[in-house]
Design goal:
The longest helix is centred in the last third of the chain and has 19 residues. The protein has eleven helices and 17 strands. Helices cover 31% and strands 26% of the residues. It folds into two domains: 144 residues, 3-Layer(aba) Sandwich (Rossmann fold); 179 residues, Dihydrodipicolinate Reductase, domain 2, CATH 3.30.360.10.
Length: 366
């Protein structure tokens, strides 16, 4: 790794993975002054060449190992299938590079723990891209909860539900070995993250969950989403999951994540909270997650309802994730240890507990 980690120095980065997420990282890096993308890695030969030409990236590699070997590299984004998160991240950290990985951190908490340990040993930053907590509508709801207007939150529920949204039927997404899980691990981790963020990061003490695999095994519910993976995996994961979380202090949280179910055709992303002095709900109905949502706040004064509506936008998503990562890397090295992947690891531990609960039909203590 080069010494360019101060604010005034040029930061040289690489991106592994050429799909939608990788391109989001690439675009975001190139919009930041003083950041230079010097390498791209991916198996899609033509796409690699096209992106390299479009973004004037000098180093183009089919293998991620070659990218990590670039002598002046400072940091790398890992935007590849989940089973590759741990090996690429750990190898990068061992080379002294900072890492921004896509979610989930890994296939399970055991892999995630090795990644966190590698970040701590290397003294480098490991961040995981949770872009939904950066939504403008979620930010406004966070302000309302933090203000104390709703009192003490005691029950919340949140979901991301699709009608036909199984990504790549037969691809790595539907292989338990390659993906680690279905919608709970894929989009449910976003729901879990923004819900716990909104509630102030309470400790989860127990999980009771169920998973269903009703449509995917019959070839239903596919999204037609393009994927570079050409494997023909069996449908080995769930297509719908529900998890009930007991939180320290007595509050509870219900999480739902579904790739496919017979419901309205638009994606639904939502969050509802009931507090001792008020309640609120966020609802985003959209064919993509890029639309703004509406926050409804339910309160009363002198026995009269004082409800109101707060409009919010989608936020800046990966742009903000990447900007914050770059800011941390360029900042005081003393602050790097606070960004070691621990938050993402805690999410993985909860999801592991949910899958164990569904498998054993028992509540799992954390």
């Amino acid at each position: 790794m080069s010494s360019s980690s101060s604010t005034s120095d040029r930061l040289r980065v690489g991106v592994v993975g050429l799909g939608w997420a990788g391109q989001q990282h690439l675009d975001a890096y190139q919009a930041i002054d003083g950041v230079e993308v010097i390498g791209l890695a991916g198996k899609e030969t033509q796409l690699l060449a096209d992106l390299g030409e479009r973004h004037a990236v000098p180093g183009l590699f089919e293998g991620w190992e070659e990218l990590l070997a670039l002598p002046d590299l400072d940091a790398v984004s890992v935007a590849v299938p989940t089973f590759l998160h741990a090996p690429i991240t750990i190898a990068a950290l061992e080379r002294g590079l900072h890492v921004l990985s896509e979610k989930p951190i890994a296939r399970d908490a055991a892999e995630g723990r090795k990644m966190v340990e590698a970040a701590r040993k290397a003294g480098r930053v490991l961040d995981v891209a949770f872009n939904h907590r950066r939504r403008e509508d979620i930010g406004k709801l966070k302000e309302i909860i933090v203000s104390g207007e709703l009192g003490r939150p005691y029950y919340a529920k949140a979901s991301w539900l699709r009608r036909s949204g199984i990504p790549g039927l037969g691809s790595w997404f539907t292989s338990r070995e390659l993906a680690g899980g279905g919608p709970l691990a894929d989009i449910g981790v976003h729901v879990l993250d923004y819900a716990l963020y909104l509630l102030g990061e309470p400790k989860v003490v127990a999980v009771s969950a169920v998973t269903y695999s009703e449509l995917g095994p019959r070839g239903r519910g596919g999204s037609g989403r393009a994927t570079a993976d050409t494997s023909k995996s069996k449908f080995e994961v769930e297509d719908f999951a529900s998890a009930f979380l007991r939180l320290e202090g007595g509050a509870t949280l219900l999480i739902e994540a579904g790739w496919a179910s017979y419901r309205a055709p638009e994606d639904l992303i939502d969050f509802t909270v009931y507090g001792t002095d008020g309640g609120a709900e966020l609802r985003v109905d959209a064919t993509t997650a890029g639309s703004g949502g509406t926050v409804k706040v339910f309160t009363e004064a002198n026995g009269e309802n004082t409800d109101r509506v707060v409009d919010g936008g989608p936020g800046r998503a990966h742009r903000q994730v990447v900007e914050e990562f770059v800011e941390v890397v360029r900042g005081d090295p003393a602050g790097w240890s606070a960004h070691d992947g621990s938050l993402a690891l805690s999410r993985a531990e909860i999801i592991d507990a949910a899958y164990l609960s569904a498998k054993t039909n028992k509540e799992v203590q954390l």
